[in-house]
Amino acid sequence: MASGSEPILEVRDLVKHFPLTQGIVFKKQIGAIKAVDGVSFELSKGETLGIVGESGCGKSTLAKVLMALERPTSGSVTVSGRDITRARGGELKRMRRNIQMVMQDPYTSLNPRMTVGDIIGEPYEIHTEAAPKGDRRKKVQELLEVVGLNPDHINRYPHQFSGGQRQRIGIARGLALQPEIIVCDEPVSALDVSIQAQVINLLDRLQKEFNLAYIFIAHDLSVVRHISDRVAVMYLGKFVELGRDTEIYDRPAHPYTQALLSAVPVPNPEGREQRERIILQGDPPSPANPPSGCRFRTRCWKAQEICAEEEPLLQIRTGVGHESACHFAETHDVVHAG
Amino acid sequence: MKSTSTGVLPAEGGLGDHPLLAVEDLHVEFRTRAGVVRAVNGVTYSVGPGETLAVLGESGSGKSVTAQAIMGILDMPPAVIPKGEIRFRGTDLLKLSEEARTQVRGQRIAMIFQDALSALNPVFTVGWQISEMFRVHRGMSKGEAMKKAVELMDRVRIPAAKQRVHDYPHQFSGGMRQRIMIAMSIALDPEVLIADEPTTALDVTVQAQIMELLAELQRESQMGLILITHDLGVVADVADKIAVMYAGRIVEHAPVHDIYRRPAHPYTKGLLESIPRVDLKGQDLYAISGLPPNLLELPTGCSFHPRCPYRQDNCVTDVPPLHTISGTRGSACHYWREVVDGERQ
């Protein structure tokens, strides 16, 4: 997979705050949910960036801002050299052709009253220039074939398909406009274990075939490792660590990444009594009122005074080959330790 | 066995020759307008004191329906139990009167549900809901029961239990809600605890907390734990033995180490091989082909045969019995020897 080539997606200091208001007649803002709070990264053609983090850390908001479904509070999202957050009207519409999405829940993200042909062909209704009217049916059938469904099922309704097949329909819809970037928000978490592998293999194959770039958001760390070239770990609206998959999984430097990796149950009972486990106390703090300095310090066993005063930046630190946001970053292989 | 309902409660104290809880050849079907859905087709498993049995299976495999049958919380009709026994300390629960079952349910066999938010009542405080166990089953006064609720919330490590006992479910995070569910389930010191996907809705770091809490409670009280899950990782972490379910049957059962080392059923083997592995990155994952079966029209013979790489002609016609591999292992596959030896045909 080609990384290192010119980025097709560039995100700079992206911030998305949702205002918290009080009062019914006279609304006044009393605070903000800091869902995404300063995220920067790049994505190259054909590359997969995995984003992991717990629920509420802002990964889905990030996906929505990337798709221009939400306007960011500040920062920029540059797709092929143009800022999608400032685009309006026709320009925004054209840019959206290039970045598409696969949703988490294949049971609610497909309209039950539309046939599969209408669902997959809908992008052509909006972007009429993408396919002339006469070709659409044929194009939809080609897409069905690409995702491994029977092209003759074009007139069926979503309820006639299983969860895995529905997710394939969602993927076909994402591919319809031949985008370069696909944002996958938990694409396999609603599926049965035996079906997950089928969908992951499909995403892998499509990436090679069409040279797609993926933003792959998931909470299943082993799936993310399998599919990603680079992985970002997110906590309370910020990336705390970003690096190649091997760097994040074998040499994690941020305490949160280490805790997260050690908490994942290993599907092998051998040596389970000796395995190192870092059990974090409590729940993540509220994104409306994040701790000062380092946001992880309230649950961190390494926290010292400096952590409350100074916010650690995401940067390459001594002794660590990739970017991490911890004053005391130190690589430690939690998975193979013990 | 007598076939009439009795009011005799299961014995207490020593177990004698009986296992703590044993399900034997249980069948459950749902008679719906579309036809008969055969959700459970002859399930047999048992759990002893202090033991953890993991029931592994995908959605629709019948793992939750079996648990609901044990608890006696199936909606009947449409559910019917045409055959089978659920023996708790030697007494068949299915033959007990409804009154006697109520004595068992919640007090001696308790259950934790997957989605704590919808399992808790949003209009009562959590303290009220936990203390209800003591008011209803133990006849305590409101004040006494509330004190007990605080104790329990401490025991499941909810910080500031004394203040939080007056909060409502929506004021708690997902992990804390699941702790409240656990508090309710262990309130009356049950001998068997059934946990139906207790951590599926939770984040991994919170999942680790909850699984550790369950393990500790189990060590303290020597409960038998039936853990229902589809997560092969959680199973490997905590289980003593495993029962793998597919289309309403146990297709393989074994001690935990055996099953991960050498699975004896093609379905188990497929599940284990489809886990992403570090050394196989960049290659295709092994995927079990096809789809889970439709319970309205189960395939003939072995239910797994349409998806099975080991399939032979007789798999289509003959239902494989649960072959005994060793004293503690069984596999419902005609060709378990080939599966264990790892030769795919």
From TrEMBL, chain A:
Domain ABC transporter: residue ranges: 9-261
One BP annotation, GO: transmembrane transport
Entry-linked SUPFAM superfamilies: P-loop containing nucleoside triphosphate hydrolases (SSF52540)
GO molecular function: ATP binding; ATP hydrolysis activity
Keywords assigned by UniProt, alphabetized: ATP-binding, Nucleotide-binding, Transport
Record-linked NCBIfam families: oligo_HPY, PRK11308.1
Membership in a protein family: Belongs to the ABC transporter superfamily.
Name recorded for this polypeptide: Oligopeptide transport system ATP-binding protein
TrEMBL record, chain B:
UniProt domain ABC transporter: residue ranges: 21-272
Keywords linked to the UniProt accession: ATP-binding, Cell membrane, Membrane, Nucleotide-binding, Transport
Gene Ontology biological process: peptide transport
Superkingdom per UniProt: Bacteria
Signal peptide: none
Keyword Iron-sulfur appears in the UniProt entry: no
Locations listed in the record: Cell membrane
Membrane topology listed for this record: Peripheral membrane protein
GO cellular component, one term: plasma membrane
UniProt keyword annotation of Cell membrane present: yes
InterPro entries assigned: AAA+_ATPase (IPR003593), ABC_Ni/Peptide_Import (IPR050388), ABC_transporter-like_ATP-bd (IPR003439), ABC_transporter-like_CS (IPR017871), Oligopep_ABC_C (IPR013563), P-loop_NTPase (IPR027417)
Main location: membrane
Family of the protein in this entry: Belongs to the ABC transporter superfamily.
Name listed for the protein in its UniProt record: Peptide/nickel transport system ATP-binding protein/oligopeptide transport system ATP-binding protein
Species annotation: Nonomuraea jiangxiensis
